Each structure stands twice: as C-alpha cells, then as structure tokens.
Amino acid sequence: MVVSSTEEVPVTLKPDYDRESVLKAFEETKLGVKGLVDAGVAKIPRIFHHPRDEFENDTELDKTEFSIPVIDLEDVNKDPTKHNGIVEKVREASEQWGFFQVVNHGIPVSVLEEMKNGIHRFYDQDAEVRKELYTRDHRRSYVYYSNFDLFRAPAANWRDTLLCYMAPNPPNPDDLPEACRDILLEYSKHAMKVGDLLFELLSEALGLKPNHLEDAGCTEGVVAIGNYYPACPEPELTLGTSRHNDNDFLTVLLQDHISALQVLHKNKWIDVPPVPGALVVNIGDLLQLISNDRFVSVEHRVLANHIGPRVSIATFFSTGVRPTSKIFGPIKELLSEDNPPKYRETTVAEYVAHFYAKGLDGTSALLHFKI
C-alpha cells in the first residue's frame, strides 16, 4: 500500500512511564518509604501521586460543630450509674460516628510511650538490618513491608508497616523483631484487656448480654500494626493512608502527638486530634456486618505531613487472613421482620481476602457481601 505524504502514519510511541517497573524497583530496595527519605528525595516518585479529587473537602471547618466523642472509662465497672452512662455514650458514638476516643482505659502512660518508642527503634535500625526483616509472608509471626496493596492500589501511600500476629496463637517471642519485642508483647496484653472491656460495652449497647460479642469470636484474633509515616517533601501530592474502612471487628489505635488522622463525618473530613494518654477506637466492617448496620464502619484517612516521622500502633481485633471455621453474619437477636439481614454470612478470612484483593481503592468491601 502506498501512503501519501499527507496521510498520518500510526506510530508506536514508547511510554514515558512504566509504573510496574518503578513499583518493582521500589519493592526490591526492601527499604520502604523510609529508604527514600533516608536517601534525601526532594520530589516524591510518581507512584505516590494521588488524584486531586482525593483531597477535596479540605475546606476550613467549624471545629466546634464536629468533634470526635471522648469517653471516660473511669470506674466503668464500679459504679452502675456511671456504667450505664458509658454504655449509652458508646452506643451513640458507634451509631453516629463509628469513631471515639477513650481515656482512663487502664494502660499506664509509661507503656503507651514505650510502645511508640519501640516502633521508632524498629524503623531506626540500620538499613541492612531492616532489609533482612522485610517480608510479605503472612505465614510468619510478623510481616514488614511498604503498602500491603502496593501492586494493586491506584497510588501508593507514604507509609511503611510492621504487622504482628498476637492471637489466637501467641507468637514465639524469639520470632518477633528484637527492637520492639518486649514492649509489643506487654502492650498487646494491655490492649487485649481494653478490647475485652470495649466488646462488653458494645454488646450492651446493642441490647445484648455483655459477653455476647466475645462468645461470638470477635476477640479471638489480635493483630498489632505499627505504622511509620516519614516526613514527606511534597505532602500535597500524596496521602499517608488512603481513605478506607477497617476490615476487622474493632480497632484500638495509639497515635503519637502529630495530628494526621481524619474521619469522614457528614461528608466532611474531621480531624481526630491526639489526646495525651487516649486511645482511638473505631468500628470495623465486620462489626457493622454482624450488627446489621446498627454500628457504622466509617471511612478515614491519614494525611501526609512535612513533619515526621509520625508513628501509630493499631490493634486490630480480627484473625486476618489466617483461616478459622467461624461463620459470621447479622446477629439473629437483632433481626426482625422489619429488620431483615442486610448481609450474607462469611468468614473473617474470606472478608479480609476480598479486602486485600480489592486494595484501598476508595470503595467499601462491605458492598460485596450485601444481600
């Protein structure tokens, strides 16, 4: 065929950006986001760039109009009147916010501070030591990586993660990272006690016996997650954690003094301000599922920041990807002709596997389980 000089000829252009290769190169460093910061990057790699629409709703808000509930747990099991008042506050927060903070929860401040110090120690280790620890193998007692959905998410987050499986099968201490081993074991014991108390209060808030959620298996699994958010040279281009809902029953979070966590409430992003000595509590997808939407698992995110590093320690009440035989569905005592089940039954492993496969793409994994 003869092509005239005025006719356009298709040209195969070499793409100027091979995202997959960049992701692989980043993963192969085994140094995560901290490795980029340690190398002195002034411009964040394109794999971390988020679309501008993810930063909408960042308007100035009337901070007095919305504030995360703070619930004082002092004497919760000593004074029946106070106990009932706390249950009511937990109910309101779980139904309207899906988020609240608790004070006087029983964990000594010294333990809270040492837990944050332990996560700093882990990430402050020599780069070669961290490389040896880097893994995505969930058969181990811990995994340490950057972005669980690195190769699936539309954009990577400015965050590294240490995840440790603490229950139902307690880890061999020697299998945990030495830098934070002792405090991780101690803090987790305290956090589990707080979790047991919270599940009792949540059970009562649903009108059930105090031991209902524990007996159902909600407290069986515990995963401790130490997130590390290095200072970011271009925080306006990325996020520490994309908007998401948690894939567990309940999350108990210890955050440091750097404000970055936000929750979506009435279509506005509201700060969850650090309160000295407090723990942040939020309802997970699985608790929304079994409460048949009585309690709400709400979207939240973590902003990137010029200031850092920021650390947080999340205790997830969930068995995660590890298989168990328990089946979870809407609690039968909460159902009626006027309130039929809204979700199909599932296992924790199935739910979490779907969550992981989907990645942090801005949609709720609960939609997949709707009837």
TrEMBL record:
Record-annotated Fe2OG dioxygenase domain positions: 218-320
InterPro entries membership: DIOX_N, IPNS-like_FE2OG_OXY, IPNS-like_sf, Oxoglu/Fe-dep_dioxygenase_dom
GO molecular function, one term: dioxygenase activity
Cited Gene3D superfamilies: B-lactam Antibiotic, Isopenicillin N Synthase, Chain
Keywords: Iron, Metal-binding, Oxidoreductase
Cofactor(s) the protein requires to work: Fe cation
Organism: Quillaja saponaria (Soap bark tree)
Protein name, as recorded: 1-aminocyclopropane-1-carboxylate oxidase-like 1-like
Family recorded in the similarity comment: Belongs to the iron/ascorbate-dependent oxidoreductase family.
PROSITE patterns linked to this entry: FE2OG_OXY (PS51471)
Highest taxon above the source species: Eukaryota
